């Protein structure tokens, strides 16, 4: 694993946040972005599109139609990184074909694999034109613009503070927008690459976050999800020099007119402080759904993972959240087959899942990642056992998810209409609990919040109708 030293270089053709951005008159070039990994990568992909728009790039739907393909990558599990190299192989073939026809294709790789592998990636896939890390992508325009000339093609510098100050402001927003407020991680769980690929914890200043949220709302966002690898460790500076916690940030955001829904992800149980828990009781805009990964229900494994909390402490946080907001639903992340995990440890995980009851969850087989301490641990668990445990855990989590979905039938939920439905005359949206909901509704309700009576729960989504044929008062 390679982590570049922090070096700063002047940035020439980036526009500071807040400045008016005018797109160049140049003929438009086409950009195709494929995003892997977490929501932070989704946010980053949008921001890279903003940066490249200043170079005349507009997005298209396929690599075949593109002049530049950008892969925004994830390093979290082996499968994720390996997928990248097969995708690169396909793009290489496409480029050869296109070059034969005199129509070149540029290939850029961003994200966490770019950070972890840097120059190595250019050796393994020399046809990649540009490699840019998650803290350096504000310079993507320089890198792409410099192709064909002498100069660097790999930029994996840290830290995050320069990036946010240099990014152009957004020119469009979906009804539900992402907003990165915190980056990096200082926790060093023994299985995880994030502290190496994203670097040390950094929180954006409070006023910058508020300004970006206002901008997103002015562009049509009704919901903002605050993002961070460890979002509840947020401690941005205030204009008075003090520190703003995530709880305070949520309260300040809730004062923005027409910002009706606030979410945050991903949280670490140790950073779930009283103020943030109280915000769930006091701030109606804060959605009653929290993603709170626990990874394992066994204290022995939690210690080996360096998670810094016991299973009972996690239960305590869940109880406190539910006391603050009784209708709060939870989602979680689980790893099965961490080195040394016994049947008894795994049973403790199933037990915890039974007790907590999840509305949704992600579960993974432990994947040994180069450079992380857990790779060197004895007692690696066999693939067969990992697969058996994953199947058993998934069965339980799936039962819980379906039971939760069914429990919503007959209820009226507010739904943010954020995409087209499966057929004309239908819209798709999200409930407060992040469930996908399909509703027969006119197109003009797109981007609004409507009251929807849930009539059925399918395998992957809920279906409902507008309450009394009305849209909600705030949807005007
Ligand atoms: N910051 C978050 C998680 C970020 S990574 C937290 O602390 O909870 C997202 C999820 O990927 C993790 O919660 C974990 O469940 C999973 N994950 C991370 N590294 C992994 C690995 N080496 N093998 C399998 N799953 C992993
Ligand atoms: Fe990875 Fe742990 Fe940090 Fe989450 S808290 S990003 S799992 S090191
Ligand atoms: Fe993957 Fe990097 Fe996110 S490793 S999960 S893209 S922080």
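Q: What amino acid sequence fits the structure above?
A:
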């Amino acid at each position: 694993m390679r982590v570049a030293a922090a070096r700063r270089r002047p940035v020439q053709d980036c526009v500071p946040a807040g400045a008016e951005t005018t797109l160049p008159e140049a003929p438009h070039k086409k950009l195709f972005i494929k995003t892997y990994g977490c929501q932070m990568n989704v946010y980053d992909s949008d921001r890279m599109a903003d940066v490249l728009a200043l170079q005349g790039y507009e997005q298209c739907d396929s690599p075949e139609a593109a002049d530049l393909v950008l892969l925004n990558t994830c390093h979290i599990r082996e499968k994720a990184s390996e997928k990248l190299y097969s995708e690169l192989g396909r793009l290489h073939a496409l480029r050869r074909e296109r070059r034969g026809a005199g129509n070149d294709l540029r290939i850029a790789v961003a994200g966490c694999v770019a950070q972890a592998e840097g120059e190595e990636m250019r050796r393994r896939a020399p046809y990649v034109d540009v490699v840019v890390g998650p803290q350096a992508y504000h310079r993507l325009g320089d890198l792409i613009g410099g192709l064909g000339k002498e100069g660097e093609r790999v930029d994996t510098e840290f830290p995050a503070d320069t990036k946010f100050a240099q990014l152009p402001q957004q020119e469009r927003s979906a009804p539900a927008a992402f907003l990165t407020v915190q980056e990096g991680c200082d926790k060093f769980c023994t299985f995880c690459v994030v502290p190496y690929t994203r670097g040390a914890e950094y929180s954006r200043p409070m006023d910058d976050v508020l300004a970006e949220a206002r901008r997103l709302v002015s562009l049509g966002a009704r919901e903002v999800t605050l993002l961070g690898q460890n979002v509840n460790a947020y401690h941005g500076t205030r204009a008075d020099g003090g520190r703003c916690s995530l709880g305070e940030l949520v309260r300040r955001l809730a004062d923005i007119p027409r910002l009706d829904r606030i979410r945050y992800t991903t949280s670490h149980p140790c950073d779930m402080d009283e103020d943030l828990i109280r915000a769930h009781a006091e701030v109606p805009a804060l959605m009653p759904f929290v993603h709170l990964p626990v990874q394992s229900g066994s204290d022995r494994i939690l210690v080996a993972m360096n998670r810094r909390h016991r299973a009972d402490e996690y239960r305590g946080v869940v109880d406190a959240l539910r006391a603050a907001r009784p209708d709060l639903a939870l989602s979680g992340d689980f790893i099965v087959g961490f080195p040394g995990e016994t049947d008894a440890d795994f049973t403790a995980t199933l037990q915890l899942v039974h007790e907590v009851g999840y509305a949704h969850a992600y579960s993974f087989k432990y994947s040994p990642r180069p450079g992380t301490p857990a790779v060197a641990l004895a007692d690696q668990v066999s693939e067969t056992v990992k697969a058996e445990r994953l199947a058993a855990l998934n069965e339980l989590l799936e039962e819980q998810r379906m039971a939760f979905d069914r429990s919503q039938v007959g209820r009226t939920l507010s739904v943010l209409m954020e995409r087209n439905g499966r057929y004309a005359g239908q819209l798709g949206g999200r409930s407060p609990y992040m469930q996908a909901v399909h509703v027969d509704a006119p197109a003009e309700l797109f981007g609004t919040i409507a009251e929807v009576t849930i009539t059925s729960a399918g395998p992957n989504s809920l279906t409902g109708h507008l309450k009394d044929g009305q849209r909600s008062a705030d949807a005007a």
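Q: And what stands out in the fold?
A: The chain has a mean pLDDT of 91.
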